Structures are given as C-alpha cells and as structure tokens.
Amino acid sequence: MTTILLHVLFWAGVWFLFFYFFNYNSTDRGYVIWFSSLLLPLTVAITYFSVYFLIPRYLFQRDYRRFALFTFYMFSASAYFIVLVIYGVLIFYKKFDASQIPPMVKNFFTILILVYLVVGLVSFITMLRRSFDIEKRNRDLQNKMLAAQLQMKEQELLYLKKQIHPHFLFNTINTIYGFALKQSPRTPDIILKLSNLLDYILYQVDKPMVSLSEEVNHIREYIELEQIRFRDTLKVRFRTSEIDEKIRVAPMLLMPLVENAFKHGGVHDGQMVVYIDIESKANTLNFRIENTIHPAGDNRNENGIGLENLRKRLDLIYKADYRLECGPAEGSYRAELNITNLKRIHEEKTD
Questions:
Q1: pTM for the complete prediction?
Q2: SS3 state at 293
Q3: Which of 96, 125, 175, 260 is deepest in the core (most CB within 10 A)?
Q4: Which of 107, 332, 345 is closest to 208 using CA atoms?
Q5: Residue 119: CA count within 13 A, CB half-sphere
Q6: Interhelix angle 64-94/29-49, nearest 10 degrees
C-alpha cells in the first residue's frame, strides 16, 4: 500500500512538472492541462516498460544486443505517440489552429527530452536501488559465511583444548601413581598441586584469554610436581621478566612445550637440565625452553599430539603473529615461541 501511494505521489509531481514547464509563456491553461494529462500516461507506460521489462530482462542479464534493439523500438514508438498527443490535443481542443499552441508545446524534441529525463531518472533510481540490494545481500551472505567460519574455528579450537586435557593429565597422574605405590608422605602435597592445575584446566581453559601471570604460575606448579618426581636428577632454571597483569594469552598455551621438555628430556651426566626463559613486554611474548637429551639423540616426534595441537591453536588464534621453532641443538632440544600484537589479538577475542 505504501509503495502504491509513493508511485501516485511521484506521478502527481511529474504531472505538475509538465504543467509548469508547458505553461511557461502561455495563457491557455486548459490546453496545458489537457496536454500534460495525455502526456503523463505515455510517460508512465514508457517508464514502467523500461524499469520492469527492458532493464531487468536484458540489461541486468547482460543481453546488450536485445537491450539496444528494444530500446530503439521503445524510442521510436514513444516518438510516434508523442506526435499523436501533440496533434490530438491540437485537433480536438484548438480545432487545428496551430497559432494558439503554447510555445513550449511546439518543440517536439524538447517534449521528447523531457519525457526521457523522467524515464532516465526513474531507471537510474531503480538501478541504484538494485545495486544497494545486491550489495546488502552480498554483505549479509559474507557475514553469514564469516559467522559460520568463526563457529567452525571455535569448535575446532574447543576440540583441540579437549585433546590437551587428557594428554596433560596422563603425565601428571602417572607421577602421583608412582608416589602412591611407594606410599610417599609427599603424595598429599602432590595431589593438592594437581588440584590447582585441574582447576585451571577445567574452569579457566574455556576462557578465550587468561592473564600471562596466571599461565606462568601454573607452569611453576607443574615444575614443582616434576621436581618431586625427578628429585635430585632434575635441575630447572626458570627465568622470567616482570609480567604486566594486563597481558593476556590463550590458556594452556605454553604448557605443551613445558610438558614436552620433561616428557622427552634425557638424563645426561646424572642430571636432566631444563632452562625456561619468559620475556614479556607490552605487546610481545618471547618464550624459550631447552632441555638436555640422551647422548644417543632426541627421539621426539615433531608431529606428536601435543606439539601438533599447539601449532593448530596458534594458527587459529594468532595466525601470522607468531613464530614457533623447535629442534635439537648441540646435545639439547630447544623450543622458542614468539608472539606479537598481543593487545590487538586480545581485543578481537574479547569483542
């Protein structure tokens, strides 16, 4: 109903435009009213033919040959009917007395240009509106595709997190099992530390981001568990710079590298040595870990579950803003992780 009303108001405005234009330097308003009233239906017909048939059927379909052909037919037919309107009003209203025709009605080409100005305006608005509609549909489709991709990435990330849990717990529970068999008095202390780690794994890992200081604290607890297990055969050097509480990282991000160091580390000259270095600035994180390996060489699988999952998580979360390098180096195994643009990534994850 609203569309019909808008069309009626528009064509009423066109009629007043015709009346004002053809009434210029004329005193015979009756003639102008008749002429404008007969010219309007012709303009309406040409416009709707162009907008609802010619443009969508041929121009939008890129059939330019037929579009040009039918445009020529429409132009020829409209010129013929405009001539009929001019002479029809002249015959029936002025009894073929051409001397009394208003000046603006005498020029056929002016009338033709005026009619096609209206047709061109409506056609332009129609094409502009269609362009906006296509752009909106494309934008909506793009948003849906992005939402679907984001959901797929979230599901994949959740799956990777769930894979980390049993991998991490398996190593830690083995430690408790060994001490329980020996009925060690340190077993309760180990269970308490494990409880803290479980709280982090079960409740904090589902968050998109956690503070770096929290991640480091749980690494310390993990190291304490390993020191209990290895006793005097383990030497750990853990160095970290002062950590800004505002720095956020993905949960359980560094733990797989720490796990691998203890899991695959080897005792050399009576000791297994692990070096951990964490350096954080306002917008970057540098993490390095190195452990001794057996003299025969490191048998670590570069495509192991823990490391493979870590790379996938890094690809999903940090994309091109990280660098992870792992490999043997002169009797030890070294892993280094560098992440940049931490603030931007944190803002994207929390929006």
A1: 0.53
A2: coil
A3: 260
A4: 345
A5: 26
A6: 160
Please state, rounded to an integer, the average pLDDT across all residues of the chain. Answer: 80
Residue with tokens 């990282």: 249
CB 293 within 8 A of CB 264: yes
Could you please state the CATH topology (level 3) that the domain comprising 154-350 is classified under.
Answer: Heat Shock Protein 90 (3.30.565)
Residue-wise pLDDT for 123-182, tens only, equals 888 888 888 888 888 888 887 777 766 666 666 656 555 555 565 567 667 777 777 887
CA distance 197 to 221: 8
Radius of gyration of the chain (CA): 40
**Domains in the chain: boundaries:** 2-106, 154-350
Distance CA 239, CA 249 (A): 19
Kindly report the number of other CB atoms within 10 A of residue 318's CB atom.
21
Which one-letter DSSP state was computed for residue 100? G
User: For residue 243, is pLDDT > 60?
Assistant: yes
What three-state secondary structure class fits 323?
A: strand
Instruction: Give the residue with greater pLDDT, 262 vs 351.
Output: 262
Q: What is the DSSP string of 174-216?
A: HHHHHHHHTT-TTHHHHHHHHHHHHHIIIIITTSS-EEHHHHH
Which helix or strand (DSSP H or E) is residue 30 part of?
helix 29-49
103 SS3 class: helix
Strand order in the sheet with 322-328: 234-240, 272-280, 285-292, 332-339, 322-328
**pLDDT (0 to 100) of residue 244:** 78
pLDDT in tens, 295-332: 665 555 555 566 777 888 888 888 888 999 988 877 78
The H or E element spanning position 159 is helix 108-181
Of how many residues is the chain composed? 351
Query: How many angstroms from the chain centroid is the CA of residue 257?
Result: 31
Cα–Cα distance, 284 to 339 (Å, whole number): 6
